[in-house]
Amino acid sequence: MKMFNFNLLPSPADNEYRGNKASFWFFIAFVCLMTWRSIIHMFFEEYGAHSIANIIVLTGDPDPMPLLYMFFSLWGFAQLIFCGLCWIVIFRYKSLISLMYVFWLIEWSGRLFLYPLIERNPIATGIYTTGNTPGVEGAPYVTILMLIFLMLSLKQKNKK
User: Fold this and answer.
1) Which of 156, 146, 150 has the alpha carbon at shortest distance from 17?
2) How far is CA 138 from CA 31, 65, 72, 107, in A?
3) Separation between Cα atoms, residue 50 and residue 34, nearest integer Å
4) ω before 12 within 30° of 0 (cis)?
5) In whole angstroms, what is the distance from residue 88 CA to residue 55 CA?
6) CB 152 within 8 A of CB 17
7) Using one digit for the tens of pLDDT, what is the confidence trace for 42-82?
8) Rounded CA Rg of the chain
9) Residue 158 carries which DSSP code?
10) Quick check: helix, strand or coil at residue 129?
11) What is the mean pLDDT of each run of 10 residues along the chain (160 residues)?
């Protein structure tokens, strides 16, 4: 129990990472990917909406697409804020990496449970889309990876 408390909520939160090195480097690579995803959603919302999220172009008067793009941009901004926090942890508070894994695990595993609940939703049924998003398709795999690397991050180095 002490190992779990020490790694997940260390006191003090310092810049000493005590978990497995593979978990540390995977976290950096994952945060790079998630930062890129955030930037796409925030600044290239048309590309993110149509080419990645597979949302069809809606027509109407007034044009509904600017509103949709605004929501994609806000979603990207929210993602970028969380990625910014992760970068602070990477550069200044490495001992909190396990806790960040928990937050990422909550986000990605939530997709496994929430998307089936909204199955009758018009977006989920494909009325407004041409296919699933990478987040829906990749959620099971990312969830498994998050669990594996969370466990590795909680494993302390042997002290000699």
Assistant:
1) 156
2) 16, 26, 19, 12
3) 19
4) yes
5) 33
6) no
7) 999 888 888 888 888 989 999 999 998 999 899 899 999 99
8) 18
9) P
10) strand
11) 61 91 97 96 88 87 92 92 98 96 95 72 69 85 97 78
pTM value?
Answer: 0.87
Q: In 3-state terms, the chain is what percent helix, strand and coil (to 5)?
A: 70, 0, 30
Asked whether the beta carbons of 151 and 4 are under 8 A apart, the reply is no
* 79: three-class secondary structure by DSSP: helix
| Residue recorded with tokens 């939530």 | 110
Single-letter code of the amino acid located at 115: Y
Integer CA distances (angstroms), 160 to 54, 151, 152, 157, in order: 53, 22, 19, 9
Distance between CA atoms of 48 and 16, rounded to whole angstroms? 37
Nearest to 104 by CA among 52, 71, 139: 139
Choose among 74, 13, 15, 68: nearest CA to 46: 68
The one-letter amino acid at 102: V
> CA–CA distance from 154 to each of 5, 20, 86, 89, 96 (Å)?
9, 8, 17, 16, 10
The residue written with tokens 């989920």 in the block is 124
